[in-house]
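Progress against Task 2.4 (sequence-to-structure conversion) is shown through the following example record, which the project officer requested during the mid-term review.
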Amino acid sequence: MVSNSNPCHIKTLARSKMARVVFFLIGCLLTVTAGLKLWMLMTDPFADIVTGFSVWVLWFGILCELLLVSLLLSPVELSLKIGFSFVLFGAFFIISISRSLMGFENCGCAGVASFKPWVAVVFNGSIIAVLYITAIMNESGLRVISKAIVKAIIGMDKQVFGAICGAGMVLLLGVILSMNDTSRAMFSYFIAKPNVQADSVNIGKRSPHELMIVPVVFRNASRFPVTITGSTKSCVCISADALGKTIPPFGSLTIDVAVKASTTGRFRQRFVCFLDFPLQPVVAVDIFGFWKKD
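Structure tokens generated for the chain above:
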């Protein structure tokens, strides 16, 4: 009996199966990291302070990760999956290196799970190496991958693009509705023009043993008096007596905020006041600077 098995065909099937396993694992990883960032945005009003990324960058990162997951699980050509994975993890790799060189303590890539930037550099570099090996084994050179990406971008169907945008808006709306009150108030504060404002304060380079008293000026551009009904903060290293104080209409109020060192190096913390003002429930001020080493 003669076997009809073709060794080349068997090798091709094995490589294709390995590629599917690689993409499945990468998809699981991206789903987890996107979920961790989503959870942070829903529950932590200081997500941007903790991660070092703006809220918009975190949202953009989540959407990119979820879109790549949907691409990896779809029946598109292999070179396209490898190409877009290269682009995303290449961007992650560059960002991780820059944050490591700038002295950040958190890579900001996994939301509530905190990792050192150098860990993200090694991890993203390993993913890129695995993708490169997968591309070589499946005979998808950089030229093939580049052509696939350009072809996909140029030939993108308008209905597909509309579906992607619609899915993103539904996701955004669902998460906003799931946020706790503080996170939702902070989100509305950042996307709308506030009536009550306070400028960020740069205290410069200071000794870690120095207790700084920072005067923060809150300005009220509305015709109503606004009373501070409570406050919260991103770190126990800042404190202020703001409860019950009123900002007069078209006026200002100065509150002294005490700031002490929690670590050496660059820092940014946020002090948030809750207001009895229906049009704007919160006002926030960022205090940043650099604590010198002893």
